[in-house]
Specification:
Layout (H helix, E strand, L loop, with lengths): L1 H20 L1 H21 L4 H31 L5 H34 L1
Amino acid sequence: MKKVTTRFSHPVRGLLYVVKNDKSFQSQLLGGLLFLFFTWLIFSPLAAWEWLFIGLCWTLILITELQNSALEEALNRIHPELNENIGRSKDMAAGAVLLAAAYTIATIVALSVVRLVA
């Protein structure tokens, strides 16, 4: 049982760190909460499958932001000087967050169209 507890302590510690210290993750977390609130306010009532898609969108953004932050943290530690290749790697990780945001926008548009047509 101790092994299981130890295994979970590392990811929990990482999540607590990013929530307390990473401004980008904090903004995605707060933005997601506002997004959920306004989605509920505008589209309510929503079917369970609609909430699942919205939750998936927010989770996808948080996961990609977490990976982006972890990569940036590691690369800044390994190579603190400006480097074109390191910068490109950071840009690609940020691109993953952008794709997650684009998926979120596409999902909201699809939900809106379904409600307008129905």
